[in-house]
Amino acid sequence: MTAPDSTRIETRLAALREALESAGLGASALLANSYNISYMCGMSGLIDAEDPHVALITSDEALLFTDSRYSETARQQSAAAGDLWEVVEFSGARPVSEEIIERLSYCKVGAITLEDTMCYRRYQDWAQHLSDAGIETETSTNLVEGLRRAKDAGEIEAIAAAQAITDEAFSQMLGFMQIGMSELEIASELEYRMRKLGADGLAFPSIVASGPNGAKPHAMPSARTISLGDFVVMDFGAARDGYCSDMTRTVVFGEPSAEARAVYATVLVAQAAGLEAARAGVAGSAVDAAARSVITKAGYGKHFGHGLSHGLGMLVHENPHCSPRSTDTLAPGDVISMEPGVYLPGQFGVRIEDLIAITGDGIRNFTTSAKELIIL
Questions:
Q1: 28: closest CA among 103, 117, 121?
Q2: Angle between helices 6-22 and 34-41 (to 10 degrees)
Q3: Which of 74, 183, 294, 353 could be bridged to 248 by S-S, CB 3.0 to 4.6 A?
Q4: pLDDT at position 272 over 60
């Protein structure tokens, strides 16, 4: 767990205030998304499915409102980073706190921006209470998420560390997996090894899909046991210092058929084409097309149904995206997956996924695991 960095926090606060001004949204924002709050505060340990925090950013203040479960840790981390954030412990009922309304009135805030990621009921509560206090509300889309897209050097290294754990876990699993083991047994061992190697947690629930289950891109591990001739799709990732990794490798038990080899080779060439196309300034749809065209020309186009790529960071699915419908253009600081696949219903699936960062002059590939077909 890394300590907050004051320069990073100052930079993010300045960027948010500039984004608010550029969007014509005024100078104040109220955040309720735990990931966005953690990003803006630079604090760890704030992620909670209940979203128990509220952050208030004005032109000259940054306040984190939280409850007794988090207040002491938050104060310690804020102090370590120069007290750029004031931590206030809730005393009343939520989701709307009178402390926040009072602070807004005291600061003479006439209008405030709310995130559109709030649940509808919570948004209604806030909008009503703010209106009752004479404060106008506006709604933002991707306000903080837009800032989160471009990863700084510290974020890049956290992602690299998470991916290093993921690669090593895969390497260890190659000596562990055997015919007769179930998908659930393999998934459990894989997750244990990532934890043992230093992961703070999982980036997402692991996928281990064998034989015909591999033709389901997001199959859940089951009690199905590995048989001779099975392809096994393994899609997994570690979380480290608040950031995610993601990779997929497909292995086979025993000698594969000629068609299976051809499918694997097609996916591998498609991924290489996507990696070659992924550069700053290139449209996400064009990157997707570079890989997809390889699969289509090989006759498997209808068996590649998902997008080629998604962004990663604090969450395993973020902006930008590379798909046929993407309107994103890649830029330095983007961290994205690269994961073409072919899925033949009732037979098998093949997916190969690397994790890369877009740089000023190319890409950085975080993934080191071999991509040639591994026969176990």
A1: 103
A2: 120
A3: 353
A4: yes
At residue 180, the 3 state secondary structure works out as coil
CA distance 354 to 370: 10
Spatial CB neighbours of 94, under 8 Å, sequence gap ≥ 6? 52, 67
| C-alpha 211 chain-centroid distance | 28
Per-position DSSP letters for 246-261, written without gaps between them: -EEEEEESSPPPHHHH
* 320: preceding bond cis by omega (within 30 degrees): yes
DSSP H or E segment with residue 163: helix 153-173
CA 313, CA 307: separation in Å to the nearest integer? 18
Q: How many of the other CB atoms lie within 10 Å of CB of 180?
A: 10
Q: What is the pTM of this model?
A: 0.93
Amino acid at 331: A
Q: Phi then psi for 187, rounded to 5 degrees?
A: -60, -40
The burial of 341, by beta-carbon neighbours within 10 Å (0-12 exposed, 13-18 middle, 19 or more buried), is given as buried
For the chain, list the strands marked E by DSSP: 29-31, 54-57, 62-66, 86-89, 111-115, 136-140, 201-202, 207-210, 231-236, 238-240, 243-244, 247-252, 309-311, 318-322, 335-338, 341-344, 348-351, 354-359, 362-365, 374-375
- Given a contact cutoff of 8 angstroms between Cβ atoms, the answer to whether 127 and 104 are in contact is no
Per-residue confidence band for 94, with pLDDT thresholds at 50, 70 and 90: low
CA–CA separation, 268 and 335 (whole Å): 20
Whole-angstrom distance, CA of residue 71 vs CA of residue 88: 7
